[in-house]
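User
Take a look at the entry that follows and flag anything odd:
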Amino acid sequence: MKTAFLFPGQGAQHVGMGRDLCEAVPAAQNLFAQAEEITGIDLRKLCFEGPEDRLAQTDICQPAIFTVSAAALAAMHAVLGDDRLKKIAPSYAAGLSLGEYAALYAADAVDFAPAVRLVAERGRLMQAAATAVESGMVSVIGLDEAQAEALVAEAAQGETLTCANFNCPGQIVVSGTLAACKRVEQLARDHGAKGAIPLHVAGAFHSRIMAPAAEGLQAALASVSFREPTMPVVANVDARAHNGAREIAPKLVAQLTGAIRWQQSMEFLESAGVERYYEIGPGKVLTGLMRRINRKAEVVRVNNMADIEALAKE
């Protein structure tokens, strides 16, 4: 049976995440210590104790989620050992937006230290770009891509507005200026949508408003040497596997201003014969999306020590 490792993105964070991993597995604790030294952020306090609103900030939650995902991988190695890990060895890896960095780390395309440094810089740059322009994101329910594009065309009125996330059938997130997002909320039902829900985010991620962040990220990526992934890693921007190490940095830059094609990425994995998926890291967002994309797929959550111990008993 073909399997894939999936890693969550921003929004999966919750207070308490990673605590039991850190307490039970020295390798996980070491990753937290490394991340704190590199970023200067007290990740253990924020992840384990909050406050929730501080943990949710873009510049905090991105290195926090990445570190928890890496810690979960470390705990899997420690508890399962080589033999059991071979039984669930993934054929592919993928991650939602920020999660693509964890997928590349899982595929040994980049080491932990440069990866967490990149992710922290990415979060800082995105936060800065978001606060520079009054902007936001709206989740539109019940439209396909063509319908959503028509809604965006009418609501934009010359301002930045774009389809930013294709999460699952009937759930497309649009991103743009605050005024354009307000028009999306007002016009959505006229285009056949069941609803339009404004999201609690810092700003218009995956739109042209993130262009300054993309420029900064490109400069940060110039100092990182990626290796050939040990397994195919699906890129968000085109729902295809990275074609070698040289392709990784340009696609990560393009991801900041381009749409996240998560539904299409999961359909690509389905077409490649993947039947079982492991959601590794905090939350259960990806499990919920998969239920809408491919009901036949088996999704195993690897969120905490109890999940990993259950895997060990299989």
